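User: Predict structure, ligand adenosine-5'-diphosphate.
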Amino acid sequence: MQLAPTAMMANPSKPFLPRRGLMFILSSPSGAGKTTIARRLLAEDANLRMSVSVTTRPMRDGEVESRDYYFTAQDDFRAMVDDDAFMEWAQVFGNFYGTPRASIKAGLERGDDFLFDVDWQGAQQLSQRAGADVVSVFLLPPSIEELERRLRDRGTDDPDVIAGRMARARDEISHWDGYDYVVVNDDLGTCFERVCTILHAERLRRIRGTGLVDFTRKLIS
Ligand SMILES: Nc1nc2c(ncn2[C@@H]2O[C@H](COP(=O)(O)OP(=O)(O)O)[C@@H](O)[C@H]2O)c(=O)[nH]1
Ligand SMILES: Nc1ncnc2c1ncn2[C@@H]1O[C@H](COP(=O)(O)OP(=O)(O)O)[C@@H](O)[C@H]1O
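Assistant: Predicted complex:
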């Protein structure tokens, strides 16, 4: 039997049974392409929501408040730490970044999947705290030279900031073995496809199928 193309394409992320959402972490050394991949995933996948972090770093040209980050003053960030408002937080490049707790817990129970753009410290803390809900993917550049070229061509940072990001890249890369998956972002289309494959397969894991117990019981009764 041949399926009509529209039937095959019909919302592949909509589950047949109730399921628990997952926390999909994308990390990489700065400039390797995680923002590019994340934006495309969000544009093409209706069931994926961004976990928007709070940061004390200044806004870049092209960034949008509450889409890219909640930009905040250092005192306000500290107050949020004291209120235990973050699932995790870290200092990166001299700025503070944190994942707000609000809405994630309830969203996961509803079956929403969340995308996290966090560094290795955030990935490690979230993996420790949220266990099986977390799927972590580390993106690598095809070479150090290409990483520096991407940072320069992006045109968002001064040379001294780029030097700082390159210095930190080696440290970031050394944490590759703390992730569930590692994907090289050489050709963008191929990398995007691989990340999609991981997300689609991880959604199908038995442990996320909260409706499976009732469903299988009915099937065999
Ligand atoms: N731990 C942690 N890291 C974060 C968070 N938000 C962003 N980051 C990381 O902070 C680093 C710097 O981010 P950014 O200033 O946007 O620069 P980018 O590296 O060019 O994306 C990146 O490695 C991000 O993944 C967060 O909430 N928690
Ligand atoms: N596969 C790729 N090939 C070439 N350029 C890329 C690729 N992936 C991303 N880029 C470019 O590299 C720069 C850094 O990507 P970005 O997504 O901002 O990285 P990150 O969020 O990891 O810092 C951007 O200008 C982006 O357009």
